[in-house]
Design brief:
Elements (H helix, E strand, L loop, with lengths): L3 H14 L2 E2 L25 E2 L2 E9 L3 E8 L4 E8 L6 H15 L9 E7 L2 E7 L5 H5 L5 H20 L3 E2 L3
Antiparallel strand pairs: 1-8, 2-3, 3-4, 4-5, 5-7, 6-7
Length: 171
């Protein structure tokens, strides 16, 4: 089990190490229902609402990101699922800010938020999914012109986010 002290210390660490930061504070109502085991995360192959989880992409202190298929639209998405123990209080407020900040960022170099909802008590953030991660692309050889183009795209996206008072501390 996770103690309140470890959640608080993890939250404090995460506040300084990564995630979206904005200047506004908002509150989301708590989920109306909860998963049978509130600490259990969905597994690859499982369906969560209209999304079928295909692969785990990454996991951090506060959330897991999956590649998933939107079974209604037939499109791949990235699903960010906060750990259940963080769906209350200050952490829930942080995820709510992330949702609202991400929803207002429309830029060709930023993968947009498609949907945010509670599904079976689980907060689900669905983002457009790129062709590949920057890490995967950087693992292959590229020309100087391509590297400079990628850097320019990244800087344009960051400048746009900063103009909208959003910092992504994980970059």
């Amino acid at each position: 089990t996770t103690s309140a002290t470890s959640i608080t210390s993890t939250w404090q660490r995460c506040k300084t190490e990564g995630g979206f930061r904005g200047l506004e504070a908002v509150t989301l109502p708590p989920p109306e229902s909860s998963l049978p085991n509130p600490l259990a995360m969905p597994r690859v192959g499982q369906k969560l609402g209209k999304y079928k989880l295909q692969a785990k992409v990454s996991e951090g202190a506060f959330a897991v990101v999956y590649r998933a298929l939107d079974t209604l639209e037939g499109q791949p998405v990235a699903l960010k699922l906060p750990h259940a123990e963080h769906l209350n209080g200050e952490a829930l407020d942080a995820f709510t800010r992330e949702v609202r900040l991400a929803a207002r960022l429309e830029h060709p170099n930023i993968l947009g938020l498609k949907n945010a909802d509670f599904i079976d008590g689980q907060l689900v953030l669905a983002f457009a999914l790129g062709k590949e991660s920057l890490e995967d692309r950087l693992a292959r050889r590229m020309s100087l012109a391509t590297a400079l183009d990628l850097g320019e795209q990244l800087l344009e996206a960051l400048a746009f986010a900063h103009e909208h008072k959003v910092l992504h501390c994980g970059v």
